[in-house]
Automatic annotation (TrEMBL):
Residues 293-419 form the DUF1592 domain. InterPro entries: DUF1585, DUF1587, DUF1588, DUF1592, DUF1595. The keyword Zinc-finger does not apply. Residues 551-623 form the DUF1585 domain. Residues 437-537 form the DUF1588 domain. This is Planctomycete cytochrome C. It comes from Planctomicrobium piriforme. Residues 1-22 form the signal peptide.
Length: 631
């Protein structure tokens, strides 16, 4: 049974309502659109998925040729998979024969796989990206040695496609410019006004001091040249240095000290677009895609993997024009993944994609769960972060995100899990004896974040599995949903969550979605709202069984993991798609499918290692190339 896309929920996933393109020479071919396929779709699907009645908000009639099918790939992949798994047409609708169903699936798959990746070397539109709050703070820290966390005072970064590093939404408003100016003055004040307070930072930035053989202006020039080069993440232009020295000269004319005058130059650098934005240079003479230069590539790589500027190693390789060599680029990618600074990828990519940031704000009911406190919350967060960090830094299989034989525990968390042999507050790597734990789905962090304050939430947990793991989210729920407790009114007894949901699903508007996500959520019902194992609910034994569309029956978290591991290709695709969005800072285009395929294939051919998927993305055309911006 294939756990496939979930959002075509009301009727047959119609496939190409007006895709009536000519097929010369195929008039006797059973896959001919005019002779066979179009008629099958009209017979079984178009009644529900056309512009007249787009069930599930899916109107397939708008795609009139194969190019649009490729542009809307996820919709058509959903159609093929749901038809193949016999989830569509719905049970009560007229059903195609097995032969007809096979023809529909084959036609769609052949169309979807017709993308010629060898001929498509397209980086997509150029993206102008502002540093988000995390990147800003990390950049200030690397540049000055000051860990001021000034970005926390900025407004929250807007998100696009689930991430807060997307260029199109990271605008730069006048208010933000003023905030950056205030922050820059704060940074310089910490450096200049009290050098004894931060001697290491002072020495890092003002590394050279005037003396008998070192004129003040020459020293100022050396200091600002070095600082601007590091801030701009590429060698600073002499003309830029000259303009900055004008600021120095005017300050000295006003009888300000050497350090104060240098401070004004530092402030100018810190509010420059070359620091705040990730600017890349056009090549006006180029009409085709061209490689970004080595410094731009170093910046792309470092902010992708570390959320911070390039280190000295990357900058040296860029200066030598060696980083763009694919072998060197791969070596550096692996070095950076193994480095502790790749924890930023855990925090900022996985933290957003897997919803791990929600752990920090989730508040369980204190009366129902008095054992929960902030130290336990921190242990929950640390467990998943350390697990993912090991997978990233040690080149382990991406499947360990779903099912690992080890985890990280301290005394309080091991007590919550009922695992003996761990004490103290320090997190320890623990080999697990049972598959009831291991991986993110059975971690307290995810189980708690996907629950309500006082009880589990079966649909939410099931939706998490469908969306975050398999990339097949259901459609949005209806605008007005009555509280689940209302389903049990008048029953005269306390109902289990399963019984309440069974009553709730009698509403036809709710039934189809819940039939797909509830079995996934019920498999996690042995974990309570803070992730603790339990055997009963409301005095009755927990029933963690479920049946998926198509008839696959299973029970409990271990069998759920087995099903997900069978679907590891879908998981790898979902991971690759989201990581590519994060790496490029933009939404995906049809041509990006080639990158996703290559990344998944690279992992599958190398023991499912996550590092191979990441290296493939870094070496891809969209990551290494750009087009000139259209005027």
């Amino acid at each position: 049974m294939s756990l496939k896309p979930l959002f075509l929920v009301a009727c047959c996933c119609g496939v190409m309502s007006s895709l009536a393109f000519a097929q010369p020479g195929r008039d006797k071919d059973p896959l001919s659109w005019d002779r066979n396929i179009h008629g099958l779709l009209q017979r079984y699907c178009f009644r529900c998925h056309s512009s007249n009645s787009p069930k599930g908000d899916v109107d397939l009639a708008q795609d009139v040729d194969p190019r649009l099918i490729l542009e809307h790939r996820s919709v058509w992949e959903t159609a093929a998979s749901l038809i193949e798994s016999k989830e569509m047409p719905p049970e009560k609708a007229k059903q195609p024969s097995d032969e007809e169903r096979a023809l529909l699936v084959k036609f769609l798959n052949e169309t979807l796989n017709s993308l010629d990746c060898a001929a498509l070397q397209e980086p997509g539109p150029p993206t102008l990206r502002r540093l988000n709050r995390t990147e800003y703070d990390n950049s200030v820290l690397d540049l000055t040695g000051l860990d001021l966390k000034l970005g926390e005072n900025f407004p929250p970064d807007p998100s696009g496609f689930g991430f807060d590093n997307i260029g199109d939404v990271l605008t730069l408003s006048p208010v933000q410019v003023e905030q950056y100016h205030t922050a820059a003055r704060t940074i310089v004040r910490e450096l200049i006004d009290s050098p004894q307070k931060n001697p290491a930072a002072y020495q890092l930035v003002l590394f050279e001091q005037p003396g008998e053989k070192r004129a003040e202006r020459d020293v100022a020039k050396n200091v600002i040249s070095r600082f601007a080069t590091r801030a701009y993440r590429r060698p600073v232009e002499p003309a830029t240095v000259d303009r900055l020295l004008v600021i120095y000269d005017k300050a000295r004319e006003q009888q300000q000290s050497h350090d104060q005058a240098v401070g004004h130059m530092l402030t100018a650098v810190l509010i420059s677009p070359h620091f705040l934005m990730r600017l890349e240079r056009n090549q006006p003479e180029a009409s085709d895609p061209y490689p970004v230069d080595d410094f731009e590539l170093a910046t792309r790589l470092s902010y992708f993997l570390w959320s911070r500027p390039p280190d000295d190693t990357l900058l040296k390789l860029a200066a030598e024009r060696r980083l763009s060599d694919e072998k060197v680029l791969e070596e550096q990618t692996r070095r950076m993944l193994a480095d502790p600074r790749s924890a930023a990828l855990v925090d900022n990519f996985f933290g957003q994609w897997l919803g791990l940031r929600d752990v920090a704000s989730h508040q369980p009911d204190k009366k129902l769960f008095p054992e929960f406190d902030e130290s336990l919350r921190q242990a929950m967060q640390s467990e998943v972060n350390r697990l993912i960090a090991e997978i990233v830094q040690q080149g382990r299989p991406l499947t360990e995100l779903v099912d690992s034989s080890y985890t990280y525990l301290n005394g309080p968390l091991s007590k919550l899990y009922g695992i003996d042999g761990v004490s103290g507050e320090q997190m320890q790597r623990v080999e697990l004896k049972s598959r009831q734990r291991g991986g993110i789905l059975t971690s307290a962090a995810v189980l708690m974040a996907q629950a309500d304050p006082g009880r589990t939430n079966v649909p939410r947990r099931g939706n998490y599995v469908a969306d975050r793991i398999l990339g097949t989210p259901p459609p949005p729920p209806p605008p007005v949903i009555p509280p689940l407790e209302d389903a049990g009114k008048g029953s005269g007894k306390t109902l289990t969550l399963r019984e309440l949901l069974e009553i709730h699903r009698r509403n036809p508007e709710c039934a189809s979605c819940h039939a797909k996500i509830d079995p996934l959520g019920f498999s996690l019902e042995n974990y309570d709202a803070i992730g603790r194992w339990r055997e009963q609910e409301s005095g009755q034994p927990i029933n963690a069984s479920g049946e998926l569309p198509g008839g696959r029956k299973f029970s409990g978290p271990v069998e759920l993991k087995d099903i997900l591991l069978e679907q590891k290709h879908a998981f790898a695709r979902n991971l690759a798609k989201n990581m590519l969005i994060y790496a490029l800072g933009r939404g995906l285009h049809a041509e990006d499918e080639c990158v996703i395929r290559a990344a998944v294939s690279a992992a599958e051919q190398n023991e499912d290692k996550l590092s191979e998927l990441i290296v493939s993305i870094v070496k891809s055309v969209p990551f290494r190339y750009r087009r000139n911006a259209e005027l």
